[in-house]
Write a structure and sequence with these properties.
With 232 residues, the protein is α+β, with helices and mostly antiparallel strands. Helices cover 39% and strands 20% of the residues.
Amino acid sequence: MPAAHDRLSVRDYGASHGSHDHDHFQILVGLEGVLELEVAGRGQRIAVGDGCVVPPGERHDFEGRGATRCLVLDSHDPAWAQAVAAPPSGVQPLAHYLATAVSAGLPRARQLGASLLLETWLQHSASPDPPLERHRRPIDWAALGQWLQAHWQAPLTVADLASQVHLSPSQFTARCQAEQGDSPMQWLRRQRLAQARAWRASGLSVADTARRIGYRSPSALTAALRRVPPRG
């Protein structure tokens, strides 16, 4: 069953109305045209069949180039934290079917569409997780943070982080939430911003810090630093 308050819709995009964020996942799949997307300062283009998962709290901005239409799912289901950046090929035909069904007002499309989209998007990790050992090997969070030093500019996914500690995306998501109090993407954002604060404190300019840390612009980095305070 879909998570409470999931909402599936078809939306047309034009000129940007400014950046914003929200407390749920937003999933987009391109149906027509090209959508220019910026999430937390990082740019991305969504053409037909492309997709993107915007995590909760990530400030983002959209702008359509010409006639631009996307299937959009607003979801509170935490399983979306496991989704990779690019959807598998099976998502495109499903998205076009759901867009037609939603536009026609078919009630079961709205009821079941969110679950079908999630299941199809996650099919790359369809093999079941191995059972957890009684004594789990601890995650070396310091070592994982050290690995990030060479990957600040990369568009990292949950799967990328999980592979570094030899876990499946779902296992890593559960461990990160339990041990760090954040989803993997929230944890990654805090690490990135902590490094940005360290570079700024050492005298590095905002522009150079934004470039090194993987933000699209100095203003996007400055806004993120103000919005996400450092943890004590």
